[in-house]
């Protein structure tokens, strides 16, 4: 693959960049319009729109890319020149995304994931935008895989493909019932409420409201109940809407070959397509937050070498029925037991630590409440709240103790922990690049240690909390005897 000459992005981006810059400057432009209207200014205030439009044009004119000499290079900027370059063998994932305006223009954005830990948008290697067909073809070339089913192919290409893609997961709209249990709706609601309130305040919508005379004419408790119900319904509706917009037409397929690759696509307004090589897939993580777990649901993410766990490229299954998630995990790992096998518990000492760490803060709350009641003479009914806190701490501690465990099965190290945000991770032993034994003074007193399997994917490690020391050493030895054997011989 050689494209030695520097190339521009598609000329249709001249219709995208100016609009995008105008939206970025929208708060400033609104401020200019409001200030100009209040001062009786002339049409000069509308000249402010030209600034973001010119910036958008310059963004297009100063952006170049090329693929040459085994590297992908992106150059942008006029006064502040910025050049990004990465070797092709550092490419971990390639995402093809298309916002609504991109889709209308037949364009797409190619985001090349290289495993960098930087979250700065200027450090992202994004080719925004290319013709959709060319973007899919570039993705296939960068990952050395056959184009996905959504890519355009010659009419006779199918007869030369050795095997067809294997369909693993297809989106079911009924899964949207799990959306209100994820908390995304609350975040969307808070953002809309905060942004709307700030905008209304800036426009002076509340300037004539006298709070001292404002009344609904109904009892306060009725207003509180109605407001709470409206909030719950609003959060649920926004959660479902956000879930459908993000995950609509979610598809997970696998293309066999040498190497094979996993293909993900999803999105209603903004579509996203991702390819991950089999060689870079180190394991999976099964997320089971308490709310999803109570509803019999879970989510699945991939542990990809060189890719952070929070990247949306790592999503293998959105919140869905737990049985479906476990089935997909088995297909991805080519083994069922890492996702379903029973785990080895960590013993009574680890269980005691779960209770101590949960009840410690609750005990402080109770002690403060007792002091307040004794010092002020208030009613002992005040202790109902702290008592509920203690009861909740006991339930959480018991659930955390039940969740804690590990296993070594079919070449995978499996670890599970947590209660409110329980997570089970299965990491392939071949992707473990080191072991870390970490213990605090309290852990040493209890004969426990935290065993960390270091890897180059996901969160960069899989952690086994509060494992008995002898069991942790034995697990590390069985998993990678060539790595731990020399240290044991030295002892």
Describe this entry's structure for a reader.
There is one protein chain. Strands 7-6-5-11-10-9-8 form a seven-stranded antiparallel beta sheet. The chain has a six-stranded antiparallel beta sheet with strand order 14-13-12-17-16-15, with helices on both faces. The protein is of the alpha+beta class. About 4% of the residues have low confidence. The protein is globular, with a radius of gyration of 28 Å. α1 crosses α3, α6 crosses α7 and α11 runs antiparallel to α12. The chain contains 15 helices and 20 strands.
Largest beta-sheet details:
7 strands, antiparallel
Q: Kindly state the number of beta strands.
A: 20
Main structural class? alpha+beta
- How many DSSP helices? 15
Average pLDDT metric: 81
What characteristic shape results from the CA principal axes?
Answer: globular
Euclidean distance between termini CA atoms: 52 Å
For the CA atoms, what is the radius of gyration? 28 Å
Strand line-up in the sheet with most strands: 7-6-5-11-10-9-8
Strand content: 25-35%
What ranges have pLDDT less than 50 throughout 5 or more consecutive residues? 145-162
Helix content: 25-40%
Topology:
Elements: E1 3-7, H1 17-24, H2 26-38, H3 50-61, E2 64-68, E3 71-76, E4 82-87, E5 93-98, H4 100-105, E6 107-113, E7 125-131, H5 132-143, E8 166-170, H6 184-202, H7 220-247, E9 251-255, E10 261-266, E11 271-277, E12 281-289, H8 290-294, E13 297-304, E14 315-321, H9 322-333, H10 337-340, H11 347-376, H12 384-403, E15 405-409, E16 412-417, E17 421-428, E18 434-438, H13 441-446, E19 448-454, E20 461-468, H14 469-479, H15 481-490
Antiparallel strand pairs: 1-2, 2-3, 3-4, 5-6, 5-11, 6-7, 8-9, 9-10, 10-11, 12-13, 12-17, 13-14, 15-16, 16-17, 18-19, 19-20
């Amino acid at each position: 693959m050689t494209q030695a000459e520097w190339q521009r992005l598609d000329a249709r981006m001249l219709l995208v960049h100016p609009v995008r810059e105008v939206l970025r400057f929208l708060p400033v432009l609104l401020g200019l319009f409001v200030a100009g209207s209040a001062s009786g200014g002339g049409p000069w205030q509308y000249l402010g729109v030209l600034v973001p439009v010119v910036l958008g044009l310059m963004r297009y004119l100063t952006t170049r890319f090329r693929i040459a000499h085994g590297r992908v290079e992106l150059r942008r900027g006029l006064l502040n020149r910025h050049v990004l370059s990465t070797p092709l063998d550092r490419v971990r994932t390639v995402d093809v995304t298309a916002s609504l305006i991109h889709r209308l223009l037949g364009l797409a954005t190619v985001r090349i994931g290289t495993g960098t830990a930087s979250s700065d948008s200027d450090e992202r290697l994004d080719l925004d935008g290319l013709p959709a067909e060319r973007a899919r073809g570039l993705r296939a070339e960068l990952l050395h895989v056959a184009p996905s089913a959504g890519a355009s192919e010659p009419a006779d290409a199918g007869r030369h493909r050795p095997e067809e893609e294997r369909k693993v997961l297809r989106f079911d709209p009924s899964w949207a019932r799990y959306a209100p249990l994820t908390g995304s709706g609350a975040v969307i609601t808070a953002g809309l409420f905060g942004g709307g309130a700030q905008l209304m305040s800036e426009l002076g919508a509340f300037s004539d409201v006298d709070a001292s005379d404002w009344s609904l004419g109904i009892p306060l408790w009725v207003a509180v109940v109605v407001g709470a119900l409206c909030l719950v319904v609003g959060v649920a509706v926004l959660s479902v809407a956000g879930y459908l917009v993000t995950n609509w037409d979610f598809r997970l397929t696998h293309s066999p070959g040498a190497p094979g690759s996993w293909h993900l696509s999803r999105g209603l307004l903004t579509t996203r397509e991702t390819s991950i090589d089999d060689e870079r897939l180190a394991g999976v993580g099964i997320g089971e937050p308490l709310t999803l777990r109570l509803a019999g649901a879970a989510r699945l993410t991939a542990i990809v070498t060189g890719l952070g766990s929070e990247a949306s490229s790592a999503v293998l299954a959105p919140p869905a029925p737990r049985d479906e998630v476990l089935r997909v995990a088995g297909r991805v790992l080519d083994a069922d037991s890492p996702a379903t096998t029973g785990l080895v518990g960590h013993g009574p000492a680890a269980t005691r630590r779960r209770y101590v760490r949960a009840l410690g803060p609750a005990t402080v709350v109770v002690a403060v409440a007792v002091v307040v009641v004794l010092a002020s003479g208030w009613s002992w009914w005040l202790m109902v709240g702290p008592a509920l806190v203690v009861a909740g701490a006991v339930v959480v501690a018991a659930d955390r103790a039940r969740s804690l465990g590990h296993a070594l099965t079919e070449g995978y190290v499996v670890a599970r922990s947590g209660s409110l945000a329980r997570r089970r991770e299965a990491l392939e032993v071949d992707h473990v690049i080191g072991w870390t034994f970490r213990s605090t003074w309290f852990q040493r007193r209890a004969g426990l240690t935290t065993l960390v399997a270091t890897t180059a994917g996901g969160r960069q490690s899989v952690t086994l909390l509060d494992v008995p020391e002898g069991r942790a050493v034995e697990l590390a030895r069985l998993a990678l005897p060539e790595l731990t054997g020399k240290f044991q011989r030295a002892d």
